[in-house]
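U., I forgot to send this yesterday:
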Amino acid sequence: MERRGRGGNPPVNQTLQVPAMTPRKERRPSMFEKEAYTQILRERLKESFHDVQYVEPPFDESVTDIGKEWKNALAKLRFANSYRMEPLKKFQAYSVQTKVQQILKEILKDVKYDDKVFSHLSLELADRILLAVKEFGYYRYKFIIKVLFIQKTGQAINIASRWIWDVTWDSWAAAQHETETYVALALVFALYCE
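Result:
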C-alpha cells in the first residue's frame, strides 16, 4: 500500500469521479430584445382571460421594426386584471351631452319625419355618437346608446330606463333635438367595468 503525503499523486487503482453533465435549460429571452417581446407577451398571457383595452408599447419609434407581427400580437392579446377599482377618468355627463347635442343638430338640421328613413338613421346616429364618446378616452367604460324618434301628433310621452349600476362611477347623459314634426332623443349610458 502506498502512502500518500502532501502533494503526492493519487493511488493508481482509484479513478476520479466527474459529476454527470445535466442538460442546460434554454435561456429565456429578455423582455428588452425587440424580437422576443411579442413572443414573451404571447407566452405569458396565453392562459389569461381578463381584458384590458389598450397597451402602451415598450419602445418609442423602434416598434416599426417589428411591423405586422407587433400589430397582430396586440390585436390578439388578453391581459390579466389590473385590479383597478376606479376609473382613470370619470365619465363627465355634461361634456358628452354637449357633444351629442352638436351631432344631433348637425345631422338632423334639414330632415323631415319619415318612419322608414328614421329606422336607418337611428342606427347611423347611434354609431356616430358611440365613436364621438369613445374619443373622450373613458377607458374601461362600456357605453349603451339609445336613439329615439318621436313623431309629434299632440300626444304626451314618458320615457323611463332602469339599470342596476354603481352610483359612484356609472352615469348617463341625454340630448334632444326638436323640430315641428318630431323630437329626437339620444341617451348615452356609461357603465364602468372593473
